Amino acid sequence: MSVKKVNKRKIFNDPVFGFITIPNEVVFDVIEHPYFQRLRRIKQLGLTHLVYPGALHTRFHHSLGAMHLMGKALFELRLKGNDISDEEMLGAQIAILLHDVGHGPYSHALEHAIVTSLHHEEISVLFMKRLNDHFKGALDLALSIFENRYPRKFFYKLVSSQFDMDRLDYLKRDSFFTGVSEGVINYERLLNMIEVAHDEPVIEAKGIYSVEKFITARRLMYWQVYLHKTVLAAEYMITRVLKRAKELSLNGEKLFATPALSFFLNNTISKEDFETNPEVLFHFSNLDDYDIFSALKVWVNHDDLVLSELSKALVFRRLFKIEMGNNPIDKSYFDKLRQLTMDKYHLKEDEVDYFCFIDHTSNYTYQPGSDRINILFKDGSVQDIAEVSDQLNITLMDKPTTKYFVCYPKGLL
Fold it and tell me: What is the chain's Cα-based Rg?
């Protein structure tokens, strides 16, 4: 009796793009792997749902969407006569599919708290190399593109640049799930206008207004969603509670934690450890949002005041107050807030920084330079969008917008 072959050309029904078809059996197998399935348990926007309740979509959604857009972009480039092989199509789609596979829980919080030696892109490469070994070299080209080693550089630019399929998906998807309509972009128009010139992705001149909207939408989404002041407060708080947990654990305190979280709380992990010790990547592959939040729920009742108060603030959404402005925070005002915080919580000098702190955040609207968005004109010339747009002010775009802020518990003043 013959065994029926499994149909691996599956379809996902995506709320943003509609039906997404899995283009290849290798892609299906990669998606089925536990490394990729873990992304179902990591929210795309971390703690943003505490401000925008609908922002509960995951990095799994986002990665599939980015792969879908990559397929559409490459199909359009083929229609315009660009020589793109089936192997290159597959490699680029797998590269963008796995671009976030190394992300830790709650957005970038883990990178600044308990795994501080390397960024998620580097961990993504390690996961991709493991998957490549597992699939006997099927990801060779995807890795080459992802690491910018492939000679045809426009593939890498479609994975990582100021106009890549990552940004194209997250702007569209994040605006959809947050309900922030300012982030809506005409991705279909942009992809219909895509071309390659001088081994760089370019947008045909008749799509220039869609590019302007894309850049403007990104700016608005950063200040209205990604760097929203209350979202920032929540992200700084979860970073601090994880730092406190690691500090206590390294000092011998036994904290409730899943095996994966416990491993990182009780060990100082270097980049070399990730590369040479298989146990490190194994535990990281089992770490997701659920590990962190289940620990916070238990830490609410811990004897350590810093750990318990920060955990309560996150679990019960008692977020710190945050004041944000264009100028650095006045030192005398900050000192007053620190003293009030110490008095309210009976904190020691080395504990108050967990509750009252100042910092700043910056964002570029657009960065002209080597990584730029190029416009292709009918005469074959190519120019940076910043040089030809009558809507985008180059003098404002090439400088970061910096905001200064102070965070402290509510009820001090």
Answer: 23
CATH code assigned to 11-98+139-227: 1.10.3210.10
Q: Is domain 322-413 given the CATH code 3.30.10 in the classification?
A: no
Q: Is the CB of residue 195 less than 8 Å from the CB of residue 163?
A: no
Question: What is the structure's pLDDT at 343?
Answer: 95
Determine contact, residues 218/168, Cβ cutoff 8 Å. Answer: no
Low-confidence ranges of the chain (pLDDT < 50): 1-3
pTM of the model: 0.94
Question: Do 145 and 92 meet the contact criterion of CB atoms below 8 Å apart?
Answer: yes
- DSSP for residue 226: I
The residue type of 316 is F
Q: Which of 212, 402, 216 is nearest to 324 (CA)?
A: 402
In angstroms, the CA 87 to CA 26 distance is: 11
CA nearest neighbour of 179 among 57, 61, 43, 54: 54
Contacts of 152 (CB under 8 A, 6+ apart): 88, 199
Rounded CA-CA distance 23/90 in Å is: 8
Q: What is the pLDDT, as a whole number, of residue 224?
A: 95
**Model confidence pLDDT, tens digit, residues 9-27:** 789 999 999 999 998 999 9
Say whether 230 sits in a helix, a strand or coil. helix
Q: What are phi and psi of 323, to 5 degrees?
A: -115, 125
Q: Is residue 95 within 8 Å of 140, Cβ to Cβ?
A: no
C-beta of residue 373 within 8 angstroms of C-beta of residue 163: yes
CA distance 167 to 150: 21
Dihedral sign of CA atoms 16, 18, 22, 23 in order = negative
Q: ∠ CA 393-399-400 to the nearest 5 degrees?
A: 120
Residues 6+ apart with CB under 8 A from 145: 91, 92, 95, 155, 156, 159
Same fold, 11-98+139-227 and 322-413: no
Annotated domain spans of the chain: 11-98+139-227, 322-413
Q: Cα dist. 14→48, 62, 173, 221, 306 in Å?
A: 21, 10, 10, 21, 41
Taking the C-alpha atoms of residue 166 and residue 401, their distance in angstroms, rounded to an integer, is: 22
pLDDT digits 0-9 by tens, 290-319:
999 999 999 999 999 999 999 999 999 999
